[in-house]
Request: fold
Amino acid sequence: MLWLALYLPELPLEAPGCSSPGQGALAVTEHQRILRGNAAAAAGGVHSGQTPSEARALMPELQLLPRQRQEEARCLRHLADWGYQFSNHVSPRTPDGLLLEIGASLRLFGGLPALLGHLAEAFDGFGHSYCRGIAPTPTAAWLLARAGDSSPVETPRALRERLAQLPCHVLELLPGQLHALQGLGLHTLADCLQLPRRDLARRFGRPLLLQLEHALGERPDPRPAHQPASRFDRYLELPAEAGDIQSLGFALQRILRELAGLLRAREGGVQKLALELHHRRQAPTCLEIGLLRPGRDPEHLLTLCQHRLEREPLAAPVTALQLRAGHILPLPPEPVPLLPHAEQAPAEKQAHLSERLQARLGEHAVTGLDTVADHRPERAWCPQTGTSFTTQAAPGERPAWLLPHPQPLDWHQGHPFWHGPLRLECGPERIETGWWDGDDISRDYYQARNPRGSRVWVFRERRGARRWFLHGFFA
Amino acid sequence: MDNALDNLLREPRIWRAGETQPRQGCLPSGYAELDAALPGGGWPQGALTELLHADAGIGELRLVLPALARLSRAGRWIALVAPPHIPYAPALAAQGVDLSRILLIHPRAGSDTLWALEQAMRSGSCAAVLAWPRKADEKQLRRLQLAAEAGDCWGLLFRDESARNERSPAALRLVLQAGENADTRVDLLKVRGGQPRQGLQLDLNNPRTRSLPVATHSPATATAGTESALPAGRVEPPASRGSLQPESSLTQMRLPLEPSPRRRPQPVQPLH
Reply:
């Protein structure tokens, strides 16, 4: 077993989306105390534990926010979903940490350094500041992360030695306890471990002893396993109102990365995405994005979303984004190419092209073409692919262009005209069918040529006014 | 043997039309006379081809369909961007085009048309892209030409004959006119790596010259590349009909409806 702990000290600031660097001094309060201030606040002398009035006295322009625990929990849950791609045992540690059992994933990723590289690369995209710790027990990893000691402890033997060096304040203690420990002259965990266990428990309560025993692996430390969500629904408030598509890009990218993490974790892909743009005073704009086949590549999804957004202008400035992926479909993992720079599979490239076109031009703007077994010329084709298995040859020659609606022609003494008198060259081919669905036709088709050399397909009605129509070109 | 002209021709800035080699491969057109006039013996791939014609229905699609039928069996897509009418599936299928490889794209606005064209050409997943742009200036055409090169795609632009005197970066420009006797007259306006030629007479209507073996069930023969070398007089029955039905029923079925390949069509009187 090898556990990786991610400690997110800035989560109270980051969860509500107020950690962007350009912002003014800001602090989060809880129970009438400052919990955490951002960099600008810290530079002004604001630190945790102050009362809001003290902090205001130091920095009059300081902006105070109440802590949003629900938001933090939701953020942590999304991160746990994302982390499932690296481990089958992810355990969020409320309020500000994530524990992953990575011992079983080392072979898959090709060793610890490679795994950590993948993880850091993916995690950096979210913009959370974090400390990591790696140890054979979850509690030890957590203590290392809190101490900011990122070098891994891989064997249980080295664990005791490394833990002994940690200061006492990494332990989770009640407010008075740290004071009491220091009063006894206990500054590191080594000092605590030297004391008789029973006395330690009597003086400081069982929780402290349990932490130490869990850290050392002397007592089982089961962790609840997180179950990744079966659907994706993420609401992301933008730091500032976005008036154009370009400024939505960053938020969109972030949200799609989270989606990709969840999809990779569940070995699934999405075929339909619903993107909602929330506005200040209007009903949200809903955009549907469809894929030909399930996919999870965040870059491709981002291109699709951007093309879809470009299709029409924004109705109003956007305050928040919401992305929903209803149904996660199973998708096998991407095949790893044998050669380093192998080409993308042609089928995938074709699907990507058609998705890009559909995203910008609309669902119905991109179609296939197929024949239908019907004698009526206007019904003998359809704009979908794969409806008929056998291509049935039409009895006569058919024109390459068909007019969507037959165009009435002038005629004189029984001879039709279209840019000059038409000379009938071949025919008639009588088509009389369709009485069963009320759309019956009865026509005599001819191939004809006009003086300018155009070969056309014309017909004459056999009922009613016996008019002539142009129906196609032998192009 | 050192005269002023030789000196001039040795200058590297002088470009002689006959010396250039077509960069990409060529695709036999299925019409022996046309192949003979084109450098490399066929349509230039990975480049733009412009087909200029004034009237509809003079064989503008029949000219390219044998090549398209062949490309459709190679697996990549054939995209039709903003076709002016319905590309009629039964006719294309009868010419041997694999319809599952056809992609119809209907953009709404003109700028979307060019965007879709460029996307399709550049993606590398289309073997041919056919388009009917209403207007296209030289800058846009150059962009398309580069996209066609990047995606190794045969870009086919069908334009009005009035564009004849405009400048264009296309590798091949043809003008189609209806000739007498149901022939089609093809003028090669611009041929990259070859000589322009006037007045090529092609019989596109008569199945006799449609010498491309369009095999529905054996793609191997369709890509063998021998069709332009076939004798011009040989009649190739379209395989989509012939392979499943006995020969006698085939002729019986066709006789009253289609002109005999040996005979000029005679005027028909409409039924009253």
